[in-house]
Amino acid sequence: MTSAATETTLAAQDLAAGHRRIAMHRIAMLVVLAVILLVALVLDLTTGPARIDLAEIVGGILDPAGLDVRTRIILWQVRLPDALIALSVGAALGLAGLETQTVLNNPLASPYTLGISAAASFGAAMAIVLEPVLSFVPPMAVLPVTAFAFSFGAALLILALSALHGGATSTVILYGIALHFLCNALTSALQYFASAEAVERVVFWTVGNLTKAGWTEVGIVTAVFLLVLPLSLRHVWVLTALRGGEVLAASAGIAVGRVRIAVMARVALLAAIGVCFVGAIAFVGLVGPHIARMLLGEDHRYLIPGACLTGAAMLSLASFLSKVLLPGVIVPVGIVTAIVGVPVFLALIAARRGEAAWR
Amino acid sequence: MAVMTVRDVDVRLGGRPILSRVSLPPLQPGRLTALIGPNAAGKSTLLRALIGAIPARGTIAVDGTEVRNIDRHTRRGLLSYMPQALPQGSSLSPYELARSYARATELALAGPDLDRRIAELFSMLGLMDDAHRPMQVLSGGKRQLVGLCLTVIHQPAILLLDEPTSALDLHWQLAAISMVRGYLDRNGASAVMALHDVNLALRFSDEIAVLKHGRLVAAGPPADIVTPDLIADVYGVAARVETCSAGIPVLLADRPTSTATSTASPG
């Protein structure tokens, strides 16, 4: 081997060794996130109006028949579905937020800011207000179906409009913002004309609440998330390459427009399924990916699992907080994510000040 | 050993003609063609047309096959385009970016072989010390060098480079073009390189093509093409072309001439 070839081999080994150190650090961060998620889940499961300790919960999961009827009902009908829907919706919103931010190259992109959540709220409001007309359909089915149809339709509309305009990222975001305001205005209009009882139900739904979900909803959201996640993981290298800039990626032969459409279709499904059962959840899809990015960098092999874990942990912690913030009251989790999300978001902005990311 | 043919290329954007019947000398293996001309002459548009990024009429072919008819996968190994835009400032490192590009574009190399390719390029362009630093803390010049690495990582047969030295200081301008020159010599590849610095074109290219207002004004060996009359006509600058001690022609620009209005305003 010539000395130049030996030098190149040594330099390559240096590069690989440096990268291995960074990779180990990121794997350690993923383990830390998984531990935080586990702690959040335990806190969520053990907190509530009825006092049930961890041993009882573990015992009740392993052997439900060993619990008394009251505790069994609380654990299996309330605590577990609520805790698990928090994990699955949080993970879905984290993944949807991350993929949106990456393909649109915009730190403010998320299902919420793109109007997908507002469309779900409008759909739900329609279902509630028109319920007397649709009395032959079970209300438990019509509301999530309508919310899903509206949010999925909204996401597809944004996707179609952006495809029509060549997929320019700023266009997609502007359409999303316009849609967000339109849906909010239409929801307000519905509330203006609706009965007081309907308005109360609309408000209750739109703030985002985990207690609406049961095992069926947990199963559906988890199944959709598990279906979409491998598709996202198949795109890890392309999504990472996109962070070097869209022009450069396109010039390297990456079909940027096609990737964006595939990603937005995934986001539409995740966001719509995420909000249709529990209502609008602010900030998880926006802030979760930012936290994951700060901890894990932008290699999407680590960032995708990281954003899912962060989203799930955030919503699970919000679910825990919703039960302890006001004694004797369970605050809707959508309010908690919004209140806690704002300072977290501001802290992230402060932490990132001076950085040149997203330039 | 691929040969690119560019003949009578017309490009219209937004209904406006940008390029009119532009032809280049055949891009032979190992040869570097510099594309010079004032702002808005159509240099970047021509390069984008050559890679197939914008629709064009005329002949743009590699070994007789029209570029638009070459499938995406084959085109990656054949043609590579470096845009003017620098790689974005992100928290990715140059090494991560290079690896993701290689994997995203299905480069056959992986593992230690890919690391050797990256190390070779990074060593040539002085990027080893910055390999694991976030792109967002690197200077524009360093990011441009990373962009150049990404362009050649597939070892394509034809390079299309749009102002690859615009953000670089003197040392790295010479290092970057020397790297490209060495790459062409070793791999029998060819390159078209848009340049603003006429002296770099004189020093390193085998042919120079001069564009003005979307038309080819002149093309041929550097010493024959770059004359005071051409510089006055194309750039509106009074200049001398003298031969330096190394026997290379050097352009000495004196002052703008009264015909400076013939060039477009800076774009």
UniProtKB/TrEMBL annotation, chain A:
GO terms for molecular function: transmembrane transporter activity. It is a multi-pass membrane protein. GO terms for biological process: siderophore-iron import into cell. It is found in: Cell membrane. The chain crosses the membrane at residues 27-46, 83-100, 112-130, 136-160, 172-194, 214-233, 269-290, 302-322, 328-351. Keywords: Cell membrane, Membrane, Transmembrane, Transmembrane helix, Transport. One of its GO terms (cellular component) is plasma membrane. Belongs to the binding-protein-dependent transport system permease family. FecCD subfamily. This is Iron ABC transporter permease. It comes from Rhodobium orientis.
TrEMBL record, chain B:
The keyword ATP-binding applies. It comes from the Bacteria. Pfam families: ABC_tran (PF00005). CDD domains: ABC_Iron-Siderophores_B12_Hemin. Residues 4-238 form the ABC transporter domain. GO terms for molecular function: ATP binding; ATP hydrolysis activity. SMART domains: AAA. InterPro entries: AAA+_ATPase, ABC_transporter-like_ATP-bd, P-loop_NTPase. This is ABC transporter domain-containing protein. It comes from Rhodobium orientis.
